[in-house]
Amino acid sequence: MSAPIYLDYQATTPLAPEARAAMAPWLDAGFGNPHSPHRLGREAAAAVEHARDQVAALLDPVAGRLLFTSGATEAVNWAIKGSFANAPAERRRIVTIATEHACVLDTVAWLEQLGADVVVLPVGRDGLVDLAAAAAAIGPTTALVAAMLVNNEIGVVQPIAEIGALARAAGAVMLCDAVQGFGRIPVPVDACDLIAISAHKIHGPKGIGALWLRHGFDPAPLMHGGGQEGGLRSGTLAPALCAGFGAAAALARKRVAADAAHIAALAERFRTALGDDWRLNGAAHPRWPGNLNLRQEGVDAAGLISELRGLAFSAGSACASGSGRPSHVLKAIGLSTAEARASIRLGFGRYTTAAEIDAAAAMLNQAVAEQRRFAA
Question: Model-level pTM?
């Protein structure tokens, strides 16, 4: 059986051959612990530091430092919990947005049970936050503001520079979940104090992410032990994962313009091939074009995913795909339950071909036609 056409790039991306090649030496002869003082350990440590430089080059290696984590979920948890733990007693407010990833919303909900004053800002039908509402919520009692750069479900780009300016004016810490934007669009680093990123969203390996910390913004540790990462994050690093992340970041930096042009062309081709019956969820601009979240009245999205075994696509975040509940992001932009259940997310990128786009569009439209025929 041939592999399905892969259209779930927001959930994860195929491993780049360059990343695989960079990992291989550290899975074999270079197995040393990078925190050991002998030659094998020093060689592994050098590979980790080289990878750190490669990843940080996409952010700002001068204004802050980059510490590796097990993934973006850990990075976000650490940033939020650690910043709140360090905040002065008079700063108990956390401000975030209704369309954030579960790792943000669930973390702030947990802190709310411990006494945090949590404000979750609504978004409009376009998926964008109202900056006036943000300005009203962010004030002298705010400890932290958390906002996602590119939404993982609908692809819209939040005004992080403006939100960060509001946070800075209020003396609050600004956290950006840049997972879906890192390596794809410029990250507004100047507006941020903490930035969470992930390797497997830029054709790197799963199991590794990072937190970029502006100098002077060191959240309290989430895990205690050896403090191997900058004295703040404990645990033995995996040199192979670090090397893969570094190679993927270096490749993304080199290919950013070519990748963006390729993906924009695919998005236009996809929309044309699918036809006007599909409606776009969220703003058309500003948006990452490699994320098409579409709906069509009467469509059973879950049924399409089950029926079309030759396509790999989703109805929303992989983290919530088994919950059976409508997407919180689609509900937040004002869609009804029926509209949310009629929505699909199509994600594509560097290794997607025009032929795959054409085939996928034909398969989707045929499957929808069959659904309607059986429902009649």
Answer: 0.96
